[in-house]
Amino acid sequence: MNVKKILCSLAAAVTAVSMMAVNVFAVTVDLDSEYPGIWKAGKCIPKADLEALGGDVKIVLTVEIKEPLVGEHLHHLRPINHDADWTGFTTSLQSDTAYAMESDGNFVLADGQTSVEFIIPADVISTLNDGGLGFMVCNVIVKSADISKAEAPQGAIKLVTAEEGEQITVGTYGAEPAETEAAPVEDQASAETDGEDIAADDADEDETPAPAETEAAADPAPAETAVPAADTAVTTSAATGNIPAAAMLSAMAVAGIAAAAAKKRK
Questions:
Q1: What is the DSSP letter of 69?
Q2: Which end of the chain is more exposed for a tag (fewer CB within 10 A), N or C?
Q3: How far apart are CA 5 and CA 19, in angstroms?
């Protein structure tokens, strides 16, 4: 056997080992193509497939929401020991993203959700019967499961109330309050301005003088007016063109004196 054939054989062996490793550490299990019915379970993930991975197993379910023609608007599924009782063991699982009802342990799915991820610990896998891990569903089709060895643990599944479950279903759980609920900035500014105006009005009222003081200020005592000296100069009014009375009297007196003097000369 020449070197070329040896290298080809080694490459083929490495490829086969790699494929075997992938098959051991990541497996896709096909489950239901049709809806099994409300609160029923379809196909299961065999226990042997879970044990073959060794240790804790991460499971990512591919799901499809089936809207009911009648009945409650619920999208629930519950992991169960299919060949034993169906009470479930949700609180023994781990997930950083899944929510479950605190009343019955059902996973709650939102409208349009397409996947669910969780970790099933090795000690829970050991309690399964040979039928393996099943899923009781309500308006959900579990189409397949990608299973792989869990590389790191996840947190405890968050349990929610019935009201919170309804919010998760319609996608409003944990949403921030609408901005319209907050008081508009303009209204707050207006309220502050109104408060300032009221305070200013109050201040004006406090500063209003007493009635007596107001009358005194409005009607002050008349000031003494000096009497002008008589004006003997003959002036003409700019407004009427008439000679003032005082000037006329002076002129008449002068004319009288002149007449008397003229008679004496005659």
A1: S
A2: C
A3: 21
- Which residues does 254 contact at the CB level (< 8 Å), separation at least 6? none
Give dist(CA 201, CA 205) in Å, integer: 6
H/E segment holding residue 13 = helix 3-25
Kindly compute the dihedral angle of the four CA atoms of residues 39, 45, 51, 54, in this order, to the nearest 10 degrees.
-100
What length does the chain have?
Answer: 266
List CB contacts of 127: < 8 A, sequence separation 6 or more: 81, 89
- pTM confidence score: 0.59
pLDDT over 90, % of the chain: 51
Q: 159 CB contacts (<8 Å, ≥6 apart)?
A: 91, 99, 100, 101, 102
Q: Which of 108, 98, 119 is nearest to 76 (CA)?
A: 108
Which residue type occupies 20?
M
**Least confidently predicted of 57-66, 106-115, 243-252:** 243-252
Q: Evaluate the CA torsion angle 227, 233, 234, 237 in order and state its sign.
A: negative
Place of tokens 């490829």: 15
Provide the phi-psi class of 150: left if phi over 0, else alpha when psi is between -120 and 50, else beta.
beta
pLDDT digits (tens, 9 = 90+) for 222-264: 444 444 444 444 444 444 444 454 545 555 555 555 555 555 5
Which amino acid appears at position 38 of this protein? I
Alpha-carbon distance of 142 to 69, in angstroms, equals 19
Backbone φ and ψ of 40, nearest 5°: -120, 170
Smallest Cα–Cα separation from 155: which of 97, 109, 102?
A: 97
34 CB-near residues (< 8 Å, 6+ apart): 42, 141
Phi, psi of 176 (to 5 degrees): -70, 150
- Choose the weakest-confidence range: 29-43, 108-122, 207-221: 207-221
